[in-house]
Amino acid sequence: MGDFTEPLGLCSLEDLSALLGYLDADTITGLCVPEDGSDGCSGVQDCLTRYTLARIDAADARAGDVAMGLDVSFLLTSAYLVFVMQLGMNILLKNVLDACVGAMGFYLFGYAFAFGHGHGRDSNGFIGNWNFALSYTTQTSFSGEEFATFGWHNFFFHSAYLLYSFFLSSFVYPVVVHWVWDSQGWLSAFNTKQDGYSGILRTGAIDFAGSGVVHMTGGFAALMGAAILGPRVGRFSSDGTVNEMKGHSATLVVMGTFLLWFGWFGFNPVALAGGAGGIAMLFFKYYTTHGAWDVVAVCNGVLAGLVAVTSSCSVIEPWAAILVGASGAVVFCFFDHLTLYTLKVDDPVSAFALHGGVGMWGVLFPGFLAKHDYVVEVYGAYGFGMDAKEGKRFGLLYGGHGQVLLVQVIEILAIIGWTCFTMGAFFMTLKMAGVLRVSVDTELAGLDITNYSKTAGGPSAHNGHEYEEDFSGHTGEKGLAP
């Protein structure tokens, strides 16, 4: 065989096969005499180079398929874990309806509003506008969702709840998703249309798993619903004093908390923050109630820790996760007291305090303790400058820029304004239509009795009390004790 630089025509296919070891003649011919009529190889080295590049391209394509399969498998596994979270609530049928109606709403409209921009099509920073009902689906078109579910279901018409679930999952929530998580969103840290910088203050909001997107949206929707629906009958005395209404079963609360905690791993790693929140709540309640241990409060503390860390979980150190979880429990107590005793809003399961109030604290936290190395790893080396260090695109306590914290505040205000406006208008419409609230008799008897067993009537146990009088003339809107 001649020199390696001599033309391929001077080398036999047998010689090349011997040189490459495992290639057959047809393979070499295809490499050196392309079917498209372009110039063939100029020598053995050129042939080897072409073959190597072809094999690299093939391996890269296979690796891409494997990576896509792993990504989809991870998302599906996360979705399965999140699905378990529905068992962690307190109203069974409505949770089933949440899954059913939410899935349909997100399929028909939600995905398009959240991520709807296709190849060669521009969406705006406010809302997506393409791929309704997944009409153009690729292997990369995948999304999951989960919402907070709220405790005023007990005196909420089924028809109204179905409308609420569909409206929230198909429109209100997807718009917020588009803002923060889609590469076209005006709040997104992944939106680099402006000369490689994020669109909002050249940094974008850091909300990795949704303290704002998921929890604030759900929490403020709960606040609007509870405020417009009005308190339960007997919640307040005529002088405005709050009457205690104990929950049904602490055992079920603990079981639900563990289910939620388990399912939360489908969102983000939460072991430290949840544990810190539970411990902080244990001792906080112990000292504020003069030596009483409250298992339900501890469960709320665990959940508060989970909500608080959801936004910053990808950009903070483990010790910071403990800090945000523990502080989240205290923030929960503040908003829980504010909602009931100051605003006089009856939120039966403290959904606003847990998801809205703690969610706000969770959104703020990256502005203080987001670490630059983690920001680069998650969001890429862009921001104010060429990388996170140059642009100081990290928390203030690490020496970062104040604009990072400012963007987090902007996200909070935007979500509050959008959710309160849309859900407030929605609930007011249902109220004026007379389909928002059940009658007082039905509320006192309990929807389990009136809607399922069909045995309404007679004395009914309601929050530890029995009512035998007729309160059919009571509107229930002010929640006054009968």
UniProtKB/TrEMBL annotation:
Cellular localization per UniProt: Membrane
Entry membrane topology: Multi-pass membrane protein
Record flagged with keyword Transport: yes
Biased composition (Basic and acidic residues): 463-482
Keywords assigned by UniProt, alphabetized: Ammonia transport, Membrane, Transmembrane, Transmembrane helix, Transport
Domain Ammonium transporter AmtB-like, chain residue ranges per copy: 89-456
Sequence segments annotated as region (Disordered): 457-482
Ranges annotated as spanning the membrane: 66-84, 96-114, 161-181, 208-229, 258-284, 291-312, 318-340, 352-370, 405-427
GO molecular function, one term: ammonium channel activity
Cellular component GO terms held in the UniProt record: plasma membrane
Pfam families: Ammonium_transp (PF00909)
Swiss-Prot/TrEMBL GO biological process terms: ammonium homeostasis
PANTHER family hit by this protein: AMMONIUM TRANSPORTER
Family: Belongs to the ammonia transporter channel (TC 1.A.11.2) family.
Name by which UniProt lists this protein: Ammonium transporter 1 member 1
Provenance organism: Tetrabaena socialis
